[in-house]
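Narrative of accomplishments. A recurring question from our advisory board has been how the design workflow behaves on a single, concrete structure rather than in aggregate. To address it, we present the structure tokens for one chain from the evaluation set, followed by the sequence designed for it. No filtering or post-editing was applied between the two.
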């Protein structure tokens, strides 16, 4: 039986952090055996928040190396750039005729983005973001899209566009479903709910042990626990949430000793740093391999783009045929 298809993507923002791993990458790695995966490097989407493209290529390579080092297998899942497969923008143009401006304005993700990024003037690219995303997904006939709760409205728009096209011209596209696996979110080192490069509160997948230690030393903890002996509240401490992910076996003991005061924050942080570094060690080793073999990385990208392009061209041939524009 043919495997179901998944389209998942990230905007190339450079080296990834452990929040990316927990929030998406770990899940993609698990899914790559069960489904036929396509991994999109959404470099056109970057333009919605930054028009300066000087770093996009290097950020793409850095992200790709992290994908590979963390365990994504290019033989199972092609990895490719949106900008190198022109069918993405071609399909977006057709799809932009199938949805009203009013519907896109009602998209709650647009409202969140405008609020979070303090956007004063909404550009067409913001409004059309889910239309390009629909093209990204449907070009590869994705059956599922692994997303967090916040992205579900975009999948709904994709389903509406697929339905509208199929009704108007004949069936080409599946109506993809969101694949809502439990997306854990790691808090940032400064206590923010989310790890984010722009907030400078991350631990990168490429951070060496000394860097991880230095970053954790500065991490915010329970403000009422000033010194060893004070009773702590692990449920409000971000270091404890890192322990939950990277050091699950010691959770009962850390929780007990934090509450009783027997455990001090410095020791707890250094223990956490060492567990995170043990987790990162094989990723960093693999990363070094790819950094020393950059031609292999470029070949993986070029091979992924060939495979992605072939799929995209097949879909567009079907689209044109149904539209009698072949
Ligand atoms: S002892 Fe550990 S879990 Fe408790 S507040 Fe300090 S860093 Fe957080």
């Amino acid at each position: 039986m043919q495997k179901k298809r998944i389209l998942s993507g990230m905007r190339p923002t450079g080296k990834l952090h452990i929040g990316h791993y927990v929030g998406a990458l770990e899940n993609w790695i698990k899914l790559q055996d069960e489904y036929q995966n396509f991994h999109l490097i959404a470099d056109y989407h970057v333009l919605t928040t930054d028009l300066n493209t000087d770093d996009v290529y290097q950020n793409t390579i850095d992200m790709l190396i992290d994908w590979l080092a963390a365990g994504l297998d290019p033989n199972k899942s092609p990895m490719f750039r949106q900008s190198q497969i022109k069918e993405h923008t071609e399909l977006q143009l057709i799809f932009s005729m199938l949805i009203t401006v009013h519907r896109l304005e009602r998209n709650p993700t647009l409202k969140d983005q405008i609020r979070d990024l303090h956007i004063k003037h909404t550009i067409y690219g913001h409004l059309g973001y889910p239309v390009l995303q629909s093209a990204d997904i449907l070009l590869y006939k994705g059956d599922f899209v692994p997303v967090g709760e916040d992205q579900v409205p975009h999948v709904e728009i994709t389903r509406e566009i697929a339905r509208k096209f199929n009704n108007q011209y004949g069936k080409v596209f599946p109506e993809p479903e969101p694949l809502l696996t439990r997306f854990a979110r790691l808090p940032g080192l400064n206590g923010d709910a989310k790890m984010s490069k722009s907030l400078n509160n991350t631990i990168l997948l490429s951070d060496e042990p000394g860097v991880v230690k230095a970053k954790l030393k500065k991490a915010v903890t329970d403000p009422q626990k000033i010194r060893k002996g004070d009773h702590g509240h692990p449920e409000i401490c971000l270091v404890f949430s890192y322990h939950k992910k990277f050091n699950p076996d010691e959770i009962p003991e850390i929780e007990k000793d934090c509450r009783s005061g027997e455990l001090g924050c410095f020791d707890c942080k250094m223990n956490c740093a060492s567990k995170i570094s043990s987790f990162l060690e094989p990723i960093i080793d693999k990363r070094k391999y790819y950094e020393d073999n950059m031609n292999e990385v470029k070949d993986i990208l070029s091979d992924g783009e060939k495979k992605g392009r072939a799929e995209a061209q097949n879909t567009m041939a079907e689209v044109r045929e149904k539209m009698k524009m072949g």
